[in-house]
Design brief:
mainly alpha, Rossmann fold, two-stranded parallel ribbon, 2 strands
């Protein structure tokens, strides 16, 4: 999030230029941390002030999805794709 391009402000401006009226934000994080708790809500609040005509919605991040445990278990069970470190 810190180094990605475009940043949130530029992405929103680009969508506004395309006459988008609703933006759905899907945080692609595996854990609840500073970005989820503070940074993302602050960025969205700033953009909402800048573009009051837009509707902003935020989905839950991945850590709250029950399928995440299944995905992790699948990766652990998939020993055919394991690579030994240093090889």
């Amino acid at each position: 999030m810190s180094y990605g391009a475009p940043n949130v402000s530029d992405a929103v401006a680009s969508l506004v230029s395309r006459e988008i009226s609703r933006i759905i934000i899907m945080p692609m994080f595996l854990v609840t941390g500073n970005h989820i708790i503070g940074d993302i809500p602050e960025l969205i609040a700033n953009e909402q002030q800048r573009y009051p005509q837009l509707e902003f919605f935020t989905t839950q991040h991945f850590a709250t999805h029950p399928a995440l445990v299944d995905i992790i278990q699948s990766r652990i069970n998939d020993t055919n794709n394991f690579k030994r470190f240093g090889q």
